[in-house]
Amino acid sequence: MIYEHQVVTIPRVKLPFGQQLENRVASMYTNSALKINEIASALYMCERQLHRYIKSHFNMKPSEYLRRYRLYKASELLKQGYSAKKVTYEVGFSSYSYFARCFKREFGCTSKQYFRQSST
């Protein structure tokens, strides 16, 4: 029996780890000074634990996960017609040359070639 003055709470459903991680990274990735320990803190875990979880779920390091996340966000912006230099800073890279190197390694083409391919 529930009385009027009792507080009834609904149990919270825990999201799968990948969804929680993506939500946190989505809210933080534009910060070029973002550190892995900040992501871990946002997920209420230590950096080592985050490393283990990402390694077991995605088979990569947390820094690689963050870099790939940024690159795929950059690819979405490039498809919308934004310039590569603007996209570099919008997605949290602090150097255009590093962005260009990472982009080419991930997608196999430069950002300019990628834009041309996606616009045709």
Structural summary, described in words:
This protein has 120 residues and is mainly alpha-helical. It has a single domain (17-119), classed as Arc Repressor Mutant, subunit A (Orthogonal Bundle), CATH 1.10.10.60. It has helices at 17-28, 36-42, 47-58, 62-79, 84-90, 96-107, 111-119. The longest helix is centred in the middle third of the chain and has 18 residues, at 62-79. It is elongated, with a radius of gyration of 19 Å. The N and C termini lie far apart (65 Å). The relative contact order is 0.11.
- Count of discrete domains: 1
CATH architecture title: Orthogonal Bundle
Elements, N to C (H/E): HHHHHHH
CATH topology (fold) name: Arc Repressor Mutant, subunit A
Into which percent range does the helicity of residues fall? 55-70%
**Mean pLDDT, rounded to whole units?**
86
Gross geometry: elongated
State the helix count: 7
User: What's the main sheet like?
Assistant: none
Q: How far is the N terminus from the C terminus?
A: 65 Å
Extract low-pLDDT stretches: 1-13
Secondary structure layout plus pairing:
Layout: H1 17-28, H2 36-42, H3 47-58, H4 62-79, H5 84-90, H6 96-107, H7 111-119
Report a brief summary of the structure.
With about 120 residues, the chain is mostly helical.
Question: What attributes does this structure have?
Answer:
disordered N terminus, mainly alpha, 120 residues, 7 helices, 0% strand, 64% helix, single chain, Arc Repressor Mutant, subunit A
